[in-house]
């Protein structure tokens, strides 16, 4: 039973964790759960912490759900380009198991297979990422104000709110909530980024400018800084 | 007659410039010409300086022809994404003229129109770029040796050969000819790059690593250096 390897890491806050009934392609791979505080009243919910953002700016809450739980889409189109978006936890399954779900990894180019496997993350890490991104969103200058219940929940995970403290993880400039509205050729100006592109968990994930994220590429942030430092040194010789 | 605005800039070497008979969609827009030295023997030729490279490594000579004369392809696919590749000089025509050639600019998104227009270059500039790129290619470490006739022609334009002197314009690391063979997910490791992405002429064009070119994005090289300098300063605070 695959889902047993997804250990619960919410030890800094007691959460409900009651199983939710879900359907869909990979619903048997992971038991999705309620992440409301333990002994909450009312219905169980997986993404309750996004409920307010969903009412005021659904494009942003949808983005957070998508980026935290799914691999990014293939930027190119061809039969061997791989699936457009897939649950990150599906990428923890073996090639044989994925075949049962209709995904033939062996038909993909080695580079594409590797890229998909690098996006793998367990279910709990994905939820932790969603909580972190929600926290960072509310701490952007110009962000809406969440109800106390959600604010308290997020602060229990990541400390007191500090409006305006959310920066691009890469260039360290403050990120304004309004940037979510700006799009260049159909792409958002803010992207979810990774200090290490091959690790998807709360510690390693944040927001960045699209142009910064593109410049970082598949380097770790540390490698990126070392790389541009070398460029500047050679360019000024 | 549009072709009159393409003034001849080959004043540092007398070239033949006899008109070549060409066919194809935009053949009436520009009079293509022979760029062999004046009073050459044998047949006229537009890209004679690529003839040797074409026999030893046609993928590279084709790349030089393509990058020097065509816009880059649309990276995304949709009805309003614009043409995949088009002659750069076609982008000097008015919207009305382009409509006669079956390209309805007004059907493209403003951002796509702007991007295409930024790729515009006159015919002579494109040939100058091809000559420059050929020169840079032969000066990469590991490059094949051209026949004297081609070497002399290229040196008349850009000075004495200095094998190993060709560097990535962006990161300033030497570029090896073997890099043309390396491809990541179907893309070449070496790209044609622009010190200013909106100017396509010999002075402004060179080769760069794909990852460097992506990082530079639509900034000028000067803007890029200033940008990464700012990042490093903020990151080390």
Topology:
The structure is a homodimer of 237-residue chains.
Chain A: H1 51-56, H2 58-69, H3 95-100, H4 110-118, H5 123-138, H6 148-158, E1 183-184, E2 187-188, E3 190-194, E4 205-209, H7 210-216, H8 221-235
Helix pairs in contact in A: 2-5, 5-6
Brief summary of the model shown:
By secondary structure, chain A is mostly helical. Chain A is 35% helix and 6% strand.
Can you describe this structure?
Two copies of one chain form a homodimer. Chain A is mainly alpha-helical and 237 residues long. Chain A has one domain (2-71, 80-230). Helices cover 35% and strands 6% of the residues of chain A. The first copy, chain A, contains eight helices and four strands; from the N terminus they run H-H-H-H-H-H-E-E-E-E-H-H. The first copy, chain A, has a two-stranded antiparallel ribbon with strand order 1-2. Chain A has a two-stranded antiparallel ribbon with strand order 3-4. In chain A, helix 2 (58-69) packs antiparallel against helix 5 and helix 5 (123-138) crosses helix 6 (148-158). The first copy, chain A, is flat. The A-B interface holds A 75-77, 109, 111-112, 115, 170-173, 184-186, 211-212, 214-215, 217, 225, 227-232, 234-235, 237 and B 75-77, 109, 111-112, 115, 170-173, 184-186, 211-212, 214-215, 217, 225, 227-232, 234-235, 237. Chains A, B: InterPro entries: DraIII-like (IPR048434). Chains A, B: It holds the Pfam family DraIII.
């Amino acid at each position: 039973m695959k889902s047993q390897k997804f250990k619960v890491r919410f030890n800094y806050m007691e959460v409900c964790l009651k199983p939710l009934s879900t359907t869909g392609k990979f619903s048997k791979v992971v038991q999705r759960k309620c992440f409301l505080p333990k002994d909450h009243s009312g219905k169980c919910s997986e993404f309750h912490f996004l409920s307010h953002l969903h009412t005021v700016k659904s494009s942003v809450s949808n983005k957070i759900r998508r980026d935290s739980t799914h691999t990014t889409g293939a930027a190119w189109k061809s039969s061997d380009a791989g699936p457009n978006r897939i649950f990150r936890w599906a990428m923890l399954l073996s090639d044989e198991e994925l075949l049962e779900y209709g995904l033939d990894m062996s038909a993909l180019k080695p580079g594409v297979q590797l890229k998909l496997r690098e996006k793998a993350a367990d279910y709990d890490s994905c939820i932790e990422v969603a909580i972190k991104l929600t926290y960072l969103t509310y701490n952007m200058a110009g962000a809406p104000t969440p109800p106390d219940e959600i604010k308290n929940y997020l602060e229990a995970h990541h400390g007191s709110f500090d409006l305006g403290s959310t920066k691009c993880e890469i260039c360290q400039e403050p990120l304004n909530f309004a940037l979510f509205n700006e799009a260049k050729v159909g792409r958002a100006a803010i992207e979810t980024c990774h200090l290490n592109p091959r690790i998807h968990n709360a510690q390693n994930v944040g927001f960045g400018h699209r142009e910064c994220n593109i410049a970082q590429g598949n380097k770790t942030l540390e490698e990126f800084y070392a790389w541009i430092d070398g460029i500047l040194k050679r360019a000024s010789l």
